[in-house]
Amino acid sequence: MGVAGCGKSSVGAAIADRYQGRLIEGDAFHPAANIAKMSAGVPLTDEDRHGWLCRLSEEVAAALAAGERPVLTCSALRKSYRDLLRQGEPGLGFVFLDLARDLAGERVAKRPGHFMPASLVESQYRTLEPPHQEPLTLAVDASLPLEAIAEQAVQWWRKANGTNPA
Ligand SMILES: Nc1ncnc2c1ncn2[C@@H]1O[C@H](COP(=O)(O)OP(=O)(O)OP(=O)(O)O)[C@@H](O)[C@H]1O
Ligand SMILES: O=C(O)[C@H](O)[C@@H](O)[C@H](O)[C@H](O)CO
């Protein structure tokens, strides 16, 4: 979880790779109206995100039911969004990719062919409620090298689950 440009897709893929997980790319489930809105530089509202979050919750549940290890990339910026996802799966853990605003802006501006304009980064930080004091949450410095972040996340998750490797 985290703002645009924090590395959700890159880190999610690296975690899924190390953890034999099934990557669920949250952005791929945004309805066309949400993509159109963001492309036009308009931030999403709670209402815009609601159906999308429900859909992601279903995807996680389906993966678990199929015996897979879901690794979801999802901005999950507000606590209420994370709580909605937790309702679907109480054992859900969150890796918060914590990145300074200027770096997120730089990454989004440099990323070719993506729908998210750099002008929306500011609104992502206005919406962001960092998940401090929430259960099963790891905050990571998202400016670290990709592999270091993935390694930290997988080690934390294995420990958090004790003997249960799932
Ligand atoms: N740890 C990192 N160090 C340096 N560059 C990174 C790191 N993580 C991601 N990047 C780069 O930053 C840019 C944004 O990364 P990415 O697309 O993974 O982030 P995201 O916006 O959170 O994901 P998405 O928007 O697809 O959900 C990409 O160009 C990526 O290569
Ligand atoms: O909740 C949101 O505002 C969105 O999910 C965004 O965070 C983007 O989809 C994503 O990060 C694109 O770069």
From TrEMBL:
GO terms for biological process: D-gluconate metabolic process. It is an enzyme of class 2 (transferase). CDD domains: GntK. GO terms for molecular function: ATP binding; gluconokinase activity. Gene3D superfamilies: P-loop containing nucleotide triphosphate hydrolases. Keywords: ATP-binding, Gluconate utilization, Kinase, Nucleotide-binding, Plasmid, Transferase. GO terms for cellular component: cytoplasm. InterPro entries: P-loop_NTPase, Therm_gnt_kin. It catalyses: D-gluconate + ATP = 6-phospho-D-gluconate + ADP + H(+). Pathway: Carbohydrate acid metabolism. Its EC number is 2.7.1.12. Belongs to the gluconokinase GntK/GntV family. This is Gluconokinase.
